[in-house]
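Troubleshooting: if your tokenizer reports a length mismatch, compare your output against this known-good record of 397 residues.
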Amino acid sequence: MKNKTILLLLILLILTNSGFTQQTNSVAPEATIAESRLSFWEIPYLKKAFINAVPADRNDGVPVGELGVDGGNKAMMLKLAQEIADNKHDPFDSFLIAYKGKLLFESYYRRGRINLPHFQASATKAYTCLALGRAIQLGYLTMTDLDKPLVSFLKDIDTTNLVDGAEKITLHKAMTMCSGIRISKEQREAFKKTPAQLKSQKQVQTFLEHSAPITTASQSFLYQDDPRLVMQVIEALVPETAKDFIKKELLDKMDISTYGWETDVNGLPRSGSRSSMTSRDMVKWGILTANKGKWNGEQLVPEAFINKATSRMLYTGDDDVYGGGTDVSNQGYGYYWWSADLKYGDKSYFCVSAQGGGGQYIILIEELDLMVVVTSHENNNSTLQMVAERVLPAFIK
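Known-good structure output:
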């Protein structure tokens, strides 16, 4: 009996020194009332990372399970999480993993808090995409409308003064960052001096009067203002405002109540950046997309739209892959969702991801029914490479 006790103590000591202490009985870090009033950049760093392989059921609509029991290699993920906590990898604010529809792993570092919305930067574009998909599901426009001229939906546009080729800009082109609008930096600075010309649909009017002519050559991929065009269409077609529509038809339905979404100069919700979501709510957006537009059995977004949005419609090249590395290739783009091949061993896995500058990711790997959510506030990162190198092997059988 004495020898057995000594053996158990030795095992516990080894696990503790190896960084595998699992905080299943502790509470995930929450922002205090005082902290919630601070700007993100004023939030103090956590004194100790929170690492949990048995995420708590918070009755927030996120199904939970247990890492190692419901899937995944527990030891491998706990080791990786401890390395992140020990600053051996990219600095994260949160790192979550869902598998087969259940959240199995949850960790918070630095400015990460379970109840604190984290800025999303360009991951906001993916939410704008899903808002348009919701409008299609409700019949305010159709899938075939994606190939119609964007200005045909905007009744306040005076088409007599637009640049040549403006009618070539379809919703599809705008959703793939291929509108072809080309406006100089000097022109944009001039617009800021007269913000009245950017209110409501005047913003689109201004863009299409001052752009260089829209041509086949100009309608190539360029990461720019195109989401603003899409939000203008949503605003024009839904019965309420775009802001109310997004809240009522997506956020409320997914029980997302703690969030931020700034207003653009045009008076509409920001479409390309400036939203804030908790990490668990990012998981909800991922579940909606992974489930082909279904949430709790209700089809919020058409499956056909999801399939199109998350397909690799065009290749953007591998010269500058955000979060990439040696095992990340064939970077592409759909409807504001990025795509890439993640290699492990002799096989590659197709992934799609919402991405935001500073290190926000919702990464979906359909073949493995795997989701990885990351938040950070450091722009230089190799998150996709880390997923390929360290997360994939923990879930490949």
